[in-house]
Amino acid sequence: MPYRLWAFKFVCTQPRCKRQKLTGCGVYKTVRRVLDMDGWYYMGTEYLECRLCKKKLAGWSLDILDQLDASHRSIFPAILTYRLSCDLKVVRLMRERTLGNSVTRLYNQLREQHSQTWMSRTLYYLSVCDHFVVPGAAPLRVTPPPPFLDVPSAQWLLTVHGYDVLFQLEDFKARVTSIFGSILKMDSTKKVTKKLAGAAHGTAAWATNVGNEYGQVLMTVLTDSEGEGLLDMAAGLQQRYSRAGVAPPKLLYVTRDCCALMGKGKTAAMFSQWEELIVRLDVGHLIRRFARGVTTESHPLYALFLRRLSSCMLVWCADDVERLLEAKRGELKESHITGLSDAQVLKRISLKEMARHCRRRTRGAEETERLIGELLETFIDATDTLGVRLLDRDRMQAIWQTQRRHLVCIQDPPGVSIYTKKGKDVTKGGVILPVLRCARESTSLESFHLHLNRFIPGMLNVKPDHVVTSCCVLTTVCM
After folding, report:
1. Residue 4 to residue 21: CA distance in whole angstroms
2. Where does the record place the DUF6729 domain (predicted)?
3. 432-449 as b/e: b if 16+ CB within 10 A
4. pLDDT tens track for 358-417
5. Residue 243 Cα to chain centre, angstroms
């Protein structure tokens, strides 16, 4: 009863009332049943009325709760749904969703706790009734104990969890905005939109995500086209930076529309408020463009060609590789393996270790162009044992002519740190090694696309009349 007990001054939310004060008009006649950890409890509230429009509001309505300050709002014990309510102690158990910590498991635990508590209370009630039984007297008419109230389904618990996420939306947005990052990555996919069915079928063609160097997804939108279809998204993202007072990002990695022969590229024009923003092409997507000139991906030289192509664009930093070699040599020494050369020690270092502890830099546009030209000359006539060519000469020459201008676009801009430290440093072989995260490629966004594709139920390439699926995109990343 925030009005009677805390003496809060509430106002009417109707536009025509112009914030007319609400007054008390008794106790609300409905009592809500709330799910607790080991049972149920009942909650009542007061009734408030606007003297101008005569609108009445219950004390637990959102129009009333949103007018409370943070300290009193946190005291409100439950989340209300249409018929039942759930205590916050139960809701908090659903916030940490990990492997094995599912809603079904929580449902089974609550059902066991409720049944045990109901059983113990029933036994205690019947034992008390036994004291009123007198031998030789008329039998006492005992009222049977209350029946067991089953726990709502796991689907209802998941709905409550969705309400909890929605109520914390502003907090989530504030947390993300505080660490927006200075390097952004933008990528689009059709995997998600192909699962839209029913009334939503055909309403969107692309799902576009924007992430930062920390692996966080800042925004997700569904559009019917790329390019001009993302103007509203770009305007909203720039507005969020401006409202939060965060410095604009320095670098943006994209998969298309990175540069133009004259003037600004299309992506830079979309983010016109960020005049110092540098737009760069993702190296991985440029490699995939060159891969289109391969006759078949099952060719035995395909993987070798892509590795050499990647080394033509990027090179490992010598200082980081030397430190990792020293650490690996120390580990081998602890295992009583000594006398190995640097090349032998390097073979024992996996690519995953290299990417975790070493940085890579671009070689420069001129050197990259020279190395790729030499690589294409080497592999242009390469065949397997059956005489099948690796590269289609005409197709690869056309790709080389059109993609050569993007070699400037993949270079690391001076003064911008592409790598950020992740977690704590690790010690290997007596050498302290940093754990690094690279912001150059859009691998984190592609992983997010895969997660969304698996998260949304349904099948691809089916008619909308045959299946109706639901597309759930978290508002914490959409806004």
Report:
1. 14
2. 1-166
3. ebbebbbbbbbebbbebb
4. 999 999 999 999 999 999 999 999 999 999 999 999 999 999 999 999 999 999 998 888
5. 22
Asked if pLDDT for residue 327 goes beyond 50, the answer is yes
Q: Alpha-carbon distance 130 to 121, whole Å?
A: 14
Domain segments of the chain: what residues?
Answer: 15-92, 103-167, 180-282+467-479
* Closest alpha carbon to 361 in 404, 313, 293: 313
CA angle 411, 413, 415 (to 5 degrees): 150
- Report residue 103 as tokens: 């809603």
Q: What is the dihedral of CA 7, 13, 17, 22, to 10 degrees?
A: -20
Contact indicator for 360, 317 with CB cutoff of 8 Å: yes
DSSP assignment of 78-126: EEE-SS-EEEHHHHHTTTS--TT--HHHHHHHHHHHHHHHHHHHHHHHH
Cβ neighbours for 404, distance < 8 A, ≥ 6 positions apart = 369
Which residues make Cβ contacts (< 8 Å) with residue 305, sequence separation at least 6? 294, 375, 379, 390, 391
Q: 44 φ, ψ to 5°?
A: -115, 170
Correct CATH for 180-282+467-479 of 3.30.420, 3.30.1600, 1.25.40, 3.30.110: 3.30.420
For the chain, the straight-line distance linking the first and the last C-alpha, in angstroms and rounded, comes to: 34
Q: Which of 101, 62, 85 is nearest to 157 (CA)?
A: 85
Plot region of 141 (φ>0 → left; ψ -120 to 50 → alpha; else → beta)? beta
Supply the pTM of this predicted model. 0.65
Residue type, position 311, single letter: S
Over range 111-128, report the average pLDDT.
94
Helix, coil or strand: residue 183: strand
As given in the structure block, the two tokens for residue 45 are 């509230």
Closest Cα to residue 95, out of 158, 179, 38, 175? 158
User: Which residue, chain included where needed, has tokens 């609400």?
Assistant: 22
Q: Which of 95, 191, 73, 127 minimizes the C-alpha distance to 451?
A: 191
